User: Fold these one by one.
Assistant:
Number 1:
Amino acid sequence: MNIHEHQAKAVLKEFGVAVPRGFPAYSPNEAKEAAKQLQGSPVFVVKSQIHAGGRGKGRFEGLGPDAKGGVRVVKTADDVKANADEMLGRVLVTHQTGAAGKQVNRLYIEEGADIAKELYLSLLVDRVSSRVSVVASTEGGMDIEEVAHNTPEKIITFTIDPATGIFPHHGRALARALNLKGDLAKQGAKLLTQLYTAFLAKDMDMLEINPLVVTGDEKLIVLDAKVSFDSNSLFRHPDIVALRDETEEDQKEIEASKFDLSYIALDGEIGCMVNGAGLAMATLDIIKLYGSEPANFLDVGGGATTEKVTAAFKIITSDPKVKGILVNIFGGIMKCDIIAEGVIAAVKEVGLKVPLVVRLEGTNVELGKKIINDSGLNVIAADDLADAAAKIVKAVKG
Ligand code: GDP
Ligand code: MN
């Protein structure tokens, strides 16, 4: 689960992390009020709050190419209001939002920082070493993927073993990686401990600070923060769940989570309903192999009931991009005849406006196929994975 920048900063602040003062704002008037609260700051920063990065270099739809991006530094409370007026409700397109962009529904109004240097720092779960990876670079403020591509030597990585925890040598490694000296090195070590503590306590799976800045008066502050949490541990963090902003999430994914379906929206045209994550991945691969693109990943799970299959069907058919549906079920614990009945019931309830290919294999497969053939519905039966992929791609592409 992702949260907004201002929420991430509030979470980090609980752990003692130095962040600029700021207030979220949902209207131009609130934005102006926020700026007044921050009086004393020579400049204010008006920051779009969307679940995507690259906001600074992003472009608003409907404003010319010369208009300012999604992060704006302005001088007065009235400027804050005027910019808020222009930004709120408008769609911001960044390299992370895709072409469709994201509507800006809230802003974060912050006191400005006097930036001497921009650095990069992130913590993430490294599945290979089973540790927390620390990634640091002196090249902050820019797209880290670009730094990794052009100057990989400028990215330093080390790991922290959760069994033994954080040690002073990790702090020294960070200071070396970021070229921090004297008191700044001490601030860096302290920050790393705070971030690591927050990371573990809140079950984060990614914490990215870009930029981490050194100010003119030699202070280290977190200027941007992006955090995502391990969904499997949200049950023990009601405070984090309360930060969820469903308007930032795919509606189909929200609906799927209500039925305990593992669903991820993709960009293609073939809707997929599969049981088992491995089989679902293989199904996506073979659709591509046969020349089309999947519209989603969907694992209905081992114990798929008629209700679940129906819910899955509704979600798949609610996607206007879907031009055909491929059901690929391996009946193991679940019997093929039960699945066939579930699919038929779902099709009868939801209706079917696009071609549907069903491939069943496993326990009671013959009975399952007979149920589908006898249903009178326009369902194309397939024998194996390749046959199923070929048939659905042909049905869609003609
Ligand atoms: P992102 O583009 O979505 O990653 O948003 P950031 O929060 O990283 O902001 C983009 C850039 O805006 C930063 O890299 C800074 O260069 C600049 N910026 C953000 N806050 C301030 C600030 O307080 N003062 C100044 N001068 N620049 C800022
Ligand atoms: Mn950033």
Note: Residues 338 and 368 are 7 Å apart (CA to CA).
Number 2:
Amino acid sequence: MDHSENKSSNPRIAKGARTIGDIIEARLSRRGFLGGVAATTGLMASGCATSEVVEEAVPAVAEAREATQTVAFSFEEITRGMDETHHVPSGYTTDQVIRWGDPLFNDSPEFDPMNQSEAAQLKQFGYNNDYLGFVALPAEADGVPRGLLCANHEYVSSLLMQPGIAATYPDSMTKEACLTEMAAHGGSVVEIKQTAEGWKPVIGSRYNRRITAHATPMRMTGPAAGHDRVKTQEDPTGLTVAGTMNNCAGGITPWGTWLMAEENFNGNFLGTLEDDHPEAENHKRFGVAGGWYQWGRHFSRYDISKEPNEPNRFGWVVEVDPMDPTSTPKKLTALGRFKHEGAESVIAPNGHVVVYMGDDQRFDYVYKFVSKNKFDPDNRTANKDLLEDGTLYVARFDEDGFVEWMPLTFGEGLLTPENGFNSQADVLIGARLAGDLLGATPMDRPEDVEPHAETGNVWVMLTNNSRRTTDEIDAANPRAENRFGHIIQITEPDGDFTATQSRWEILVQCGDPSVAEVGATWNPLTSDDGWYGSPDNCAVDPTGRLWIATDGNEKTGAGDGIWAMETDGERRGTSKAFFRAPIGAEVCGPRFTDDGGTLFLAVQHPGDGDGATFEAPTTRWPDFVDGMPPRPTVLAIRKKDGGPIGA
Ligand code: FEO
Ligand code: CA
Ligand code: CA
Ligand code: CA
């Protein structure tokens, strides 16, 4: 979700039927591609100087580049553009795996968008698929590849999802309409298999499961579990929460559990608190109550004037065991509370598990968690407790090319009662306030953070930050009015992901390289189709190559998509367009199968846009049936003649 535009949070009125040409023309003329970038003129000197400093400090990085001169990606690049449907390179094919409303169980009702209900939605694939995990299952007698798709359903587009909402929003949000929205949030586990018709769901599989915002009990774990600040009237123990929401990106752990990252929880609350309320400062720092949804009209838990602690029970990373549909998901308070974008994990050489995380807000921070105990390849049960205890660090990106990972540990440094922290629970519930005190580096909206186990590289997607002023630029965020984002590469020393001092450099500054004022720094080998703006999710394929998904590339006049990124050798910094989404959609969850032969991706909020409603979306992808709304959908891309994607 691109929070900078809040596409789906405000009431909009249907504008009647429009052609795709009308829509695209209107969007481009409104956005004025070059508007506002003039302030960046002259700032590139700062960005270049940064690169020189880092290069000098990290000679091994430069040597590694020279050592690898091969071209990593041989597919035929697709062209820039924006239209009603999706595009892949020639020689590739797309499977429609599962759509919003598709059945998961033998008793799931047929999808009927005109009469959608909570009861139906609880048995169907949810809305706005974001993160995708894939856990391979052993092949059965038929030899068909199969596995568990773990999909987050981040949020709903209220005006697009249900009929008749736009005209009288927000009064149109009845209790039943709100319950339907809650049931469309959360996540789905669904067994899928690669049939002759491509990857398809196994309806009625014993693994299939829906997790929702309101009907899935979860257990609080870690230092904040049971603390007074997470107790509510509904849960006086502070140990059990009904549901998870705003599950954006995530991760699959080395022991095969699924991490769902709770992001924009602040928007789901209504109400106000007095300025002197003990939670007022913390709620303000997190933007609670954002008022993007109307649930608080009907349910007191979403109204902070009635239940001020409820927001403290969201903003965590949730761990789910997809192999056991009866298991109770865990909220992992040890990993801190903020607007979690993703949670990608890796086993460090010393056996500790490290989870990298971004807090997606303008001027917020990058974090990593290091487990107290070590991974045991022979003890999955013990591994499932690893994320309940450890150290959370927040990043400071220094001008000299080093990252300092500063521990968020109660009693150390400034994290003491004099500064308002009375326990580790306080530090974790108010992780942003703790990071503020320690002088963490305010970043340009950190989204996915992806480690590469073999090299010790970690890629940080910084999607954009149009509010950074000239006075606020720093080495790691070198552009004012950063409309197109950039990517930072962290290199952990000797591949030690637990290190508290690492190196960093900018891999690329995004945007149109033909406009000098934009300050993009692509490798010149990047074609006119190959550049983009607003990197968001990313994935490393089985051979270690980086792939980037975007959310906000429409600002550049072309659809969001997936790009392949060269990170080594002479071609480092070269980007190549691989997939383009239909209008209105961002692309999420890129995820490869272990053989690299399938790339799963999530098309989120297709048909959205200024003025878009259920009655008048910007596309009716993927069904293109009159009256059928656009449907967030998981796709699987494969080569027609087989073999690894992109090779
Ligand atoms: Fe849900 Fe930061 O995207
Ligand atoms: Ca985004
Ligand atoms: Ca995102
Ligand atoms: Ca990722």
Note: The first helix runs from residue 20 to 31.
